[in-house]
Design goal:
Blueprint: H1 4-7, H2 17-25, E1 31-33, H3 34-46, H4 51-65, E2 69-71, H5 75-90, H6 97-108, E3 113-114, E4 129-130
Parallel strand pairs: 1-2, 3-4
């Protein structure tokens, strides 16, 4: 399951060759979370009218047209996140709320979360992480 910093990489002006190769190697084998999709669409909507915004809108539409699965934050994920959030809070740790939802979707779907920001997710238990930039 791809985090926003991975899913958006191919749309960058100079995308990482490593990430592009991973996309090719895993063609059709990846999904994302509704929370990530929200982040991407919101970021696009905040851009001023420009060639960049139009290209990003086209890229997002292409992802959907090519069958990108967008996984929901459901009751099972909500339960998982509530338990993890309480566990972390007892340890004096907090996380960004959206990151917790993303982690919950990946964990409950038994998917590896692919992100450039592994440190944002490393305190969650039973969450498989991978960084395509490494």
């Amino acid at each position: 399951m791809l985090d926003s910093n991975i899913l958006s990489e191919p749309a960058r002006l100079n995308p990482s060759d490593k990430v592009l190769q991973q996309f090719a190697d895993h063609d059709g084998e990846y999904a994302t979370a509704a929370v990530v999709w929200h982040e991407l669409v919101c970021g696009c909507e905040l851009l001023a009218a420009s060639k960049c915004k139009t290209q990003l809108q086209s890229y997002l539409a292409l992802l959907l047209a090519n069958g990108l699965t967008v996984l929901p934050f459901d009751q099972v994920a909500a339960d998982w996140y509530a338990k993890e959030r309480a566990r972390l809070k007892r340890q004096g740790l907090t996380c960004a709320y959206a990151d917790g939802e993303i982690a919950a979707i990946a964990a409950t779907q038994q998917l590896t979360l692919v992100t450039r920001n592994s440190q944002d997710f490393e305190n969650f238990q039973n969450l498989s992480l991978q960084n395509w930039f490494d």
